[in-house]
């Protein structure tokens, strides 16, 4: 009795071929092998040799190249949006073209005015919300142009612009992130104190970016923070910075401490007194023992500034301490001892009694 087997063979087109007779199985396999070999021989040689290599190219992860600022030139990101040609030849069979996009970081003083202000304003928010990163970078640069040449046109939509700007700062693509940082700096210059109510999300992102390992992004964020301390009033900025002095991330604490050190001198002697020299002294003393040297150096610079301001306008001693008709004043040492814990006062006095160091330069 002849024994029958049922064997299911799936073809490339997902067609099921049922072979019911065992004696036919070997003949089917041989026919399929011959067909496959014949089809392969019909392919052009270039397609047979490039098949594996083209798959490898498509499987490679995207790496965004960056050129450092060499010879004073602007840094650029050059990004290939399609796979490169194989073996140096033009891409012929697929019909695809190699597209290279250059993103140039233009300094503020080299940005030209908008050609059509009204039309650019109409499409600005759509551009800032675009998922196309090239269009997004163009829109960010247009925000910079508006801030420099037509800031009054942004006034009504500034909150929406800042909200989308914060989103761009979180973008993982470094070209978008750096352009957004440069946009933040131009907004600080243009709008100053008027952006204080919208500053919190911008500030936290800039502190984060200035604390990361990507150097060219970090440097741009540091410059933006310097502009922030220059163009925003210290009376308004200092309360925004204080919470970050206690952040769990030591790098963020350091950047915040440096911002405080840069902002306080802009208060002036009377401004420091009005803001509360005792409050500022406590802030500085808390940073003297911080983990990173940048925090400690910023704290030392701030204490020297506070000592100078105090000596110009010392605090009067309480009336019960006065033993004559002439009002008595606390010395800097007495002031520190009366406002700080003993160990903190000693640390502050060690700094301020030593030779005065140069102020912190940069962030």
Automatic annotation (TrEMBL):
Domain TOG per the UniProt entry, residue ranges: 110-345
InterPro entries: ARM-like (IPR011989), ARM-type_fold (IPR016024), HEAT_type_2 (IPR021133), TOG (IPR034085)
Domain of life of the native organism: Eukaryota
Keyword RNA-binding carried by entry: no
PROSITE patterns found in the cross-reference section: HEAT_REPEAT
UniProt cross-references to Gene3D superfamilies, sorted A to Z: Leucine-rich Repeat Variant (1.25.10.10)
Keywords associated with the record: Repeat
GO cellular component, one term: cytoplasmic microtubule
Molecular functions (GO terms): microtubule binding
Any Gene Ontology biological process: regulation of supramolecular fiber organization
Residues in HEAT repeats: 237-275
Pfam families (UniProt xref): CEP104-like_TOG (PF21040)
UniProt protein name: TOG domain-containing protein
Species this chain originates from: Ambrosia artemisiifolia (Common ragweed)
Taxon lineage: Eukaryota, Viridiplantae, Streptophyta, Embryophyta, Tracheophyta
